[in-house]
Amino acid sequence: MTSKLGRASAFVALNLVLATSAIGQTTTMPLSTIEAASIGGTQQSQISSFVDHWGERAASADAQAASRAQTKLLEPLINSRVSIAFRSSYSDALGSYFDSLTSAGNIGSTFSALRLAGELGTARSTQIIMDGLDSDDAGVRIFAAGRAGRTFRTTAANGPALPANDLTSLINKLASITKSSDDQYLISACVQSLGQGCNLPSKDFLAARALCLAAMCDAAGAQLTNGDSDLESRVRIAMLGSGAATNSLFQIGEDSTNAAVKSAVALGADMISIALSEVINGTMPSTNNRDLYISLVQSGESLLYYALRENAELKRKPVGNVQLTAFADLLQAGKDRDFRNQAALLLGAGSPIVTEFGFNDDRFVN
């Protein structure tokens, strides 16, 4: 029996050796390489072999074969423990593949490059995303904005595989688009991606996290107060920003900066002021038709509460002095006069919020 088992094992081993020799390439990336803290010669060879094998097939004219190969190229990156060293080496190995996708110049190849780029979070992949944000194609721009968000998530989860300046450049690019574009879908995508950046751990990425928070709140506030689109579209973008900002400020053990907190306070106050203006002007819809305003105010006052708490912590003031307002409840109950009086007192000229943060007296109540 032992002899038969021995011969069987030898036969299997021999076939594996022959198969490896015949193929001569790595078709499945070992976990030990994906999770390696540093990449040695053998592991680099595995990476190069893997990219050569699947990169060639990803460029196939056979759509089904190409799609399978592109999925295989993504597989090593869909690992919660993928290392910085692996992502850097993998990105370098993919250089020729990225070049071929770029030179192809078609939408399919552009999307393939962006799909990989978001998972890598490296200097090369960030440049691919930046190029995508400058594309003449609206769909490419929106997809590239989404992959910027994926870059932030990858970096937050697995560490930085790109220089801090590249991360800052990507954030500033998204912020710039929100100021110059009139494409609501693109602006929404940028706001959502900046929201992902608000989850970067402050221990390692305080500057980038705060920059995302400030840029996102500024963009959402500008759309809400200055946008030319319908109110519902403006509110949707504002609530995307306020939700991400509230979540970021609520996270225990994470820090922010004075500038970012000011932007968050401004967005929360702007959301309340939109409804306040309607009440002051006598144009607030009846209680049965004001759900949009109630939701806007509820989201705004929640953000304002957590922003003011963060401000108190940064300035070493008692956090317990910050009180959560109930403006949305007043609107829902039809108590418009109470809402007007209390909101104007909080946000009007000379109020503590206007004074402490240096806002213009008529910023929120005019």
Structure description:
This protein is mainly α. It is 73% helix and 0% strand. The chain contains 18 helices and no strands. The N and C termini lie far apart (93 Å).
Supply the key terms.
single chain, 366 residues, mainly alpha, 73% helix, elongated
Spell out the blueprint of helices and strands.
Layout: H1 2-23, H2 31-34, H3 41-58, H4 63-74, H5 84-93, H6 95-104, H7 107-120, H8 123-133, H9 138-158, H10 164-180, H11 184-197, H12 202-226, H13 231-250, H14 258-280, H15 291-314, H16 327-332, H17 336-347, H18 352-357
Helix pairs in contact: 3-4, 6-7, 7-8, 7-9, 8-9, 8-10, 9-11, 10-11, 10-12, 11-12, 11-13, 12-13, 12-14, 13-14, 13-15, 14-15, 14-17
| Uncertain regions spanning at least 5 consecutive residues | 1-23
The SSE order reads: HHHHHHHHHHHHHHHHHH
Range of strand content = under 5%
Q: What best-fitting shape do the alpha-carbon axes yield?
A: elongated
Report the end-to-end length measured between terminal Cα atoms: 93 Å
What is the overall number of helices? Answer: 18
Largest sheet, if any? none
Brief summary of the model shown:
By secondary structure, this protein is mainly alpha-helical. 73% of the residues lie in helices and 0% in strands. The protein has helices at residues 2-23, 31-34, 41-58, 63-74, 84-93, 95-104, 107-120, 123-133, 138-158, 164-180, 184-197, 202-226, 231-250, 258-280, 291-314, 327-332, 336-347, 352-357.
